[in-house]
Amino acid sequence: MSRLLLFNKPYGVLSQFTDADGRETLADYIDVPGVYPAGRLDRDSEGLLLLTDDGHLQQKIADPRFKQWKTYWVQVEKQPDAAALQQLRAGVTLKDGLTRPAEAKLIEAPALWTRQPPVRFRKNIPTAWIELKIREGRNRQIRRMTAAVGYPTLRLVRVAIGTWTLEGINPGKWQEIKV
Fold it and tell me: How would you label 146-156 residue by residue, b for 16+ Cβ within 10 Å and e otherwise?
C-alpha cells in the first residue's frame, strides 16, 4: 500500500529535503523515510504539498498529462476587473508560451493563518483574492499569469491538488493517507 503525506508547507521552506545553503527544507518538518515530493511549491509560496513513496503515484499527481486540477488562493494588488479574469480563463501568453485555460474567480479574503514574515502592503493600493485553478505547473506560473494581466501576486497559497485539500492541516504539519 502506498503512503501519501499531505503537508502544509510554510512560507520560506524549500520543497526538497536538503539545501547546501542551510535554508529550511522539508527535512525540518517531515521525518518519514522514503517519501518524496510530487511536484513543487516555490519557497515564497505556501500550502499543500503532496509527498509519496510510490513513483507511479508521484508521476500521476505531478505530470500535467494526468490533468490534476491545482487550486490556489492568490492575493493580488488592486481589484481585478472582468477582462483580467477572462484573460486568465482563456490562457495567458507568457515568455514560454500560452498557458492552458484556467478557472478564475474573485473570492472573499479567506480565513488563513498569519504569514511569517507578513505580506507587505501599500496603504494606497487595495488588494483582492482570486481562486485560480490550473492543470499545468510551469515555473512560477501563477505569479507570472497574474502579473501578465496587471495584478501582481502578494501571497500565494495552494489549497488543493485534485481531491486532496489542506483542510484541517496547520502550517508546518502533515497528515498521512493510505492510498
Answer: bbbbebebbbb
The full length of the chain comes to 179
CATH number of the domain residue 146 falls in: 3.30.70.1560
List residues with catalytic annotation: 42
What is the number of structural domains in the chain? 2
pLDDT in tens, 160-170: 999 999 999 99
Please report, for the domain that includes residue 18, its CATH number. 3.30.70.580
Residue of 99, 77, 78, 89 whose CA lies nearest to 144 = 99
Residue with cell 507511479: 56
Quick: pLDDT tens for 91-123.
999 999 999 999 999 999 999 999 888 887 777
* Structural domain for 126, as ranges: 69-161
Question: C-alpha cell of 179?
Answer: 492510498
As a whole number of angstroms, the distance between CA 60 and CA 79 comes to: 36
Rounded Cα distance, 76 and 96, in Å: 22
User: Same structural domain for residues 56 and 88?
Assistant: no
Burial of residue 158 (number of CB atoms within 10 Å: 0-12, 13-18, 19+):
buried
- Cell matching residue 59: 508521476
Amino acid at 139: N
